[in-house]
């Protein structure tokens, strides 16, 4: 009878893309302002294999109004952050998250009647 040693434990890195705390700060600040204005009501965060998504909802049971996406593979091409509307149109894309989120801040500014 031979004694076999078990193979060494190899930890596989978590291969999902997610938002970092420094990225979630500006996103949640904008979300809080939009909730206070009555525009948004709910959100969802998805960490997928090739991208992370922060989805914003007006009501819980409907499709997201906007998606804030992080795709690190596009970092050197078009920019890793993007704001996508409900119909799939890319509103803004770039590597600076604050600049990309400004397109949604403009929606908060409305003329007063």
Short description:
This protein is of the alpha+beta class and 113 residues long. The chain has one domain.
Q: Spatial order of the strands in the main sheet?
A: 1-2-3-4-5
Number of helices: 2
Largest sheet: 5 strands, antiparallel
Strand content: 15-25%
Binned, the helix content reads 10-25%
**N-to-C SSE series?**
HEEEEEH
> Which spans of ≥5 residues are poorly predicted at pLDDT below 50?
none
Residue-averaged pLDDT, rounded?
A: 82
The structural class is alpha+beta
Description:
With 113 residues, this protein is an alpha+beta fold. It contains 2 helices and 5 strands, in the order H-E-E-E-E-E-H. The chain has helices spanning 21-36, 97-105; strands spanning 42-47, 52-57, 66-70, 81-85, 90-94. The protein has a 5-stranded antiparallel β-sheet with strand order 1-2-3-4-5. A hairpin with a 4-residue loop joins strand 4 and strand 5.
List keywords for this structure.
113 residues, alpha+beta, 5-stranded antiparallel beta sheet, 2 helices, 5 strands, 22% helix, elongated, DUF2794, DUF2794 domain-containing protein
Task: Indicate the topology.
Blueprint: H1 21-36, E1 42-47, E2 52-57, E3 66-70, E4 81-85, E5 90-94, H2 97-105
Antiparallel strand pairs: 1-2, 2-3, 3-4, 4-5
Helix pairs in contact: 1-2
């Amino acid at each position: 009878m031979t004694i076999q040693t078990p193979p060494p434990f190899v930890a596989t890195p978590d291969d999902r893309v997610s938002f970092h705390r420094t990225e979630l700060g500006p996103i949640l600040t904008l979300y809080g302002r939009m909730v206070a204005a009555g525009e948004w009501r709910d959100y969802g965060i998805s960490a997928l294999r090739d991208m992370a998504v922060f989805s914003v909802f007006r009501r819980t049971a409907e499709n997201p109004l906007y998606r804030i996406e992080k795709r690190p593979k596009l970092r050197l091409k078009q920019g890793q952050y993007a704001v996508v509307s409900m119909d799939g149109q890319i509103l803004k894309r770039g590597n600076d998250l604050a600049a990309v989120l400004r397109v949604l801040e403009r929606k908060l500014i409305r003329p007063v009647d």
